[in-house]
Amino acid sequence: MSHPKLNVYDGNAVTNAIFLQEVYRNARPDEVRWTLSHRLATPSWAGQFGGKPPENAEADNYFCVATLAAGADRREADHFAAAHVVVLDDVDPNQHAAPSYVIETSPGNYQAGYLLTVPMRDAARYARLMKVLGKRAGNDNSGNNVVRVVRLPVGLNTKREHINADGEHARCRLVVWRPGERYTFEDLEKMFKVDTAPLTAGDDEYATGMPEAEFERLCENIRTGVDLHDSINRVAARMVARGSHPADVKALLRELMHATSVERRDDRWLQRYVDIARSVDSAAEKFAPEVEEVKAGVGGSAVDRLVMDFGWPERRRAQEFVFSHVLAAGITILASYPAGGKTSTMTTLAVQAAGAWVVETGGPALEVKVHRHVVYYAEDPRQVVMLLEGMIELGWVDAAVARERIHVRATRRVAPAVLRQLGEVVAADPALRLTNHREGRRYDAAPWVVFDTTNATIEMESENANSEMGAAVSALREGFLDVPVTLITHVSKALKNETNVSALTARGAGALEADAQQVLFLTVEDIGDGEDARFINCLASSGCGCAG
Fold first, then answer.
1. What is the pTM of this model?
2. What is the pLDDT of residues 193-225, one digit of tens each?
3. Ordered DSSP codes for 92-121
4. Which residue of 191, 199, 308, 362 is 20 to 30 Å from 411, comparing CA positions?
5. What are the structural domains of the chain?
């Protein structure tokens, strides 16, 4: 595949007959060529099936990108024989690698064509390529089918919007003509970064009509870590074809993979987990229905979730903790009084969770069975960094480990849907997975994410609205999935001076506590001799399994 210097023509050097001779150079003699010549003011799309080149320079002239089967009398996909060119609409000709030709179809608007070395006779693969290209920015979203029609170089564009100030119609003009520059279909796949090969044998049928029993079998494969690549691809194809939003599909697949027992989560499993986003995006490009918009949380995925058995584990799975029997993995809340030391406490815990604490005294006496990366979203990230630097200077913290595993980022108030997307990104980032070896077993620990504070992170019209708060917690759970998340918040304003720990509640809607895995309260208490100590109290939980 070479890229010779651009050849520019004045639009008169190549007739439509010469142009079509090159387009259909490798067509079979009995295949039908389709052309059309008309004025849009009196349109007729019947076309000519003898392939006679239209040479009326005062008409709109078109040709079909594919030849049709012998005897075809309609330009329909059922009569597709072979595609001979891939055409992109509304392109910047300087931004595309060496097209075979470029036609200016109206002032400043261009179509770029890539002639095929060997005609593409697989209609399904050609259709998938055209569908993907049709969705991408800068290309026409209509008419990207296997028997689409495109303009010839000689003719007018009589659409009203292209009439100039003198009342004249726009004239088509051939500006690039390199018929010797041809591409294999595989060349174009690489150039446009599109994989049109079937996901599996018969994937079109699986995408549109997979039996429920087969769908459940594939889901069970994903739960148990069996045949992951094929199962993930086929489940993704089925779900997006039925109208599921890609975000819903990604969340469901991660949820299924999270059901895999820890001992089966090897390098292969982790790679498949990371590849979920790519698999779903590829399926969406190939199989997503042509609708204006599919919203997350509605469509096929809602049905798929409701008809799917959760799957009974082979044995009871132990509760997972960030800190053994103190801080559960899942969505947890840590609430305290204003100026109660929430950030300094969480920064100290972050150091321990990352395995960066190096002294026996001066720090928390909490057990950590597996170390993790910590992603700390702070309202004031400088405060967190300052605390870390102070502990490093005191010799309490291994600086290299802390800098490698603790990631301090500025938080922003965003909608729950954005937090869900953030969760997908964090959950799929292999750089944030930390491999631990304990008692001869391997465990790839998900990162621990801290949002300091809830009010600085979750955008809501009212923090007291249960529906809004419930939606926010649900978005966090579905996006982050197996990633432990801790939300830091204040205690209720009415209780800011409350000394009875059992009476404390987190600020805002009750759904924050009700929907979380665990709710913790950080209190400061007098331990005598003029000294205060901080205590983490677990008083409200949903079966978190902590020590209380």
1. 0.51
2. 776 665 443 445 555 567 777 888 888 889 888
3. -GGGSS--SEEEEEETTEEEEEEEEEEEE-
4. 362
5. 16-192 (3.30.70.1790), 203-307 (no CATH), 321-541 (3.40.50.300)
